[in-house]
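Now for our specimen.

. . .
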Amino acid sequence: MQYEDRPEPEEEYIRALRERQIDGFLVATAHSGGTAARKLIEARHPLVLVNRRIRGIKTGYVVADDSSGAREAVKYLIELGHRRIAHISGYLHADTARRRLDAYRSMMSAHGLASEAEELIVESDYTFSGGQEAMAKLLALSCRPTAVFAANDMMALGAMTAAQANGARVPDDISMVGFNDIAWPVQLPTPHDGPDAFLRDGSPGCPDASEDREG
């Protein structure tokens, strides 16, 4: 069974599956508490966690290396010359979101960018529309970011469409990095407004925004 990345329906769905006498469970739990998963283990149901880890639960799990992947993403943007690198996180009740956020903060701090990082973090919900809304908040800042690391690809895609709708070319004006490497479902249109106009009009408080960037 599949449901949105929210904790509310999880126990209901697992209860329904137990009633069908399922032999084992692959659980991609939506939140860190893992109440439903804990109940399955207590009832001695075979269980493997997918894309999530839950503190205090001893069971098998299959997850991405969230910390390493996030650090590499931020490092890549820093090596391009970016300093104002924003992070669009997932729901922070999900351990994947927390690990990727922690790695972002760690890498930014290691490069002397901790103060920039804290004002450029927007919590979202791992969805396309969430990425759009988060990007709209970042674009409303007096000093816009020149790069964005989104905690998953769907939010990155939403952020890209929002940036382009505001006259930015990706990656010419603003660089984007996602996480998960999904196949893009559409080819995005690219408007042709110049990067100088984008940075000047959108970031009056960033006189050096274009000087620190290589791409």
